[in-house]
Specification:
46% of the residues lie in helices and 26% in strands. By secondary structure, it is an alpha+beta fold. A three-stranded antiparallel sheet has the order 1-2-3. The chain is elongated.
């Protein structure tokens, strides 16, 4: 199976796009459009907001339970390259549309190479930097608990 059509590759790309700021995606598409005119697209569905049920498991292994609802925005676009879909957590219609456009562009070979070479490394680096920043900020709040041995507790 071609790596461009493997479901897990597409899912990873969509995850990366959903976790990236919409301003970065918009700037990349603007820059790409200056070098290679983008095909026109039409909205097939949305952008529209709705609720999804978030499920969880106690300890990651217990029986699943409904933890609550989360707001999600989705959009689907059609262009000559194909049909693209985008989902993002929260109420962000433009972000969902940008994800859908990039998803559709990935289905066209000439754009897929550009996106894999230019967009993905940038988004991965930004996401890693964000994770490192989160780790360092949470590490600063770490509290080490220890037991002190008092003199009178000796035998």
């Amino acid at each position: 199976m071609d790596t461009q059509t493997q479901p897990n590759v597409r899912a990873e790309r969509l995850r990366l796009l959903a976790l990236s700021p919409s301003t970065v995606l918009e700037a990349f598409l603007d820059q790409l459009n200056e070098r290679h005119p983008l095909p026109a697209w039409t909205l097939v569905r949305g952008p529209e907001c709705g609720l999804v049920m978030v499920r969880g498991r106690v300890g990651g292994q217990g029986a699943p339970f409904n933890a609550g609802e989360a707001l999600v925005t989705r959009a689907c676009v059609k262009m000559d390259a194909g049909l693209g879909c985008g989902y993002v957590l929260g109420e962000e219609p433009r972000h969902a549309e940008l994800i859908a456009v990039l998803d559709a562009l990935w289905q066209k070979e000439e754009f897929a190479r550009l996106l894999d070479a230019e967009l993905v490394p940038d988004l991965v680096a930004r996401l890693q930097a964000r994770y490192e920043d989160d780790r360092s900020r949470s590490a600063a709040t770490k509290v080490d608990f220890f037991t002190m041995v008092r003199g009178e507790d000796k035998d």
